Amino acid sequence: MGIILASSSPRRRELMALITPDYTVRTSDVDERAIRAETPALLAQKLAAAKCRAVAESCPEDVVIGCDTVVDVDGAVFGKPADRDDARRMIRVLAGRGHLVHTGVCIAAQGRELCFAATTKVVFGALSDAEIEAYIATDDPYDKAGAYGVQNGAAKFVAGIEGCYFNVMGFPVSRVYNALKELDVL
């Protein structure tokens, strides 16, 4: 029985290694646009479950961990920005206010499945147009939900965090660790 992280995210790989170095990576080709949910937190959980199940189908003897992260601004979902204008729009909306980051996690192990969403509140300080333009001119916003990486250049925008910091990076380390223990994987 091996552990498979069903994610191509370099941040998730780095954080998974904090739990165990003994895992492999396998990605799925789930059409995320086809998945809908009543709330952003449930959407993150459904996306994670779809990714987990897609990989687990071909690896039933292994433990598979699927994840997905969305940014929630008053119920509106901010995924990865489509382009520079979309990144600008997202950062402008986030500036000077709070938002929620939901990471859905689904773990399939030994015929069982455990799914949950972890939520962290993040507050951005006020930002000038020049700060926004300088940030979206970097590569940082374009592969992250909400168009920002808390561990990179957007760190200077974050005025406060309530909840798990690692969840904002897309992988709630402690919750995943405890779920793996609950499933007798670790």
Automatic annotation (TrEMBL):
Q: Which InterPro entries does this UniProt record tie to the protein?
A: ITPase-like_fam, Maf-like
Record's catalysed reaction(s): dTTP + H2O = dTMP + diphosphate + H(+); UTP + H2O = UMP + diphosphate + H(+)
Under SUPFAM superfamilies, the record lists:
ITPase-like
**Active site residues according to the UniProt entry:** 68
Q: Which GO terms describe its biological process?
A: nucleotide metabolic process
Q: Which cofactor names does the annotation list?
A: a divalent metal cation
Question: What UniProt keywords are attached to this protein's entry?
Answer: Cytoplasm, Hydrolase, Nucleotide metabolism
| Enzyme Commission number(s) | 3.6.1.9
The protein's GO terms of the molecular function aspect are:
nucleoside triphosphate diphosphatase activity
Query: Which residues are marked as site: Important for substrate specificity?
Result: 11, 69, 151
Entry-linked CDD domains = Maf
Would you tell me the Gene Ontology cellular component terms?
cytoplasm
Q: Per its record, how is this protein called by name?
A: dTTP/UTP pyrophosphatase
Q: Which organism is it from?
A: Ruthenibacterium lactatiformans
The root-end lineage is: Bacteria, Bacillati, Bacillota, Clostridia, Eubacteriales
Q: Which gene encodes it?
A: maf
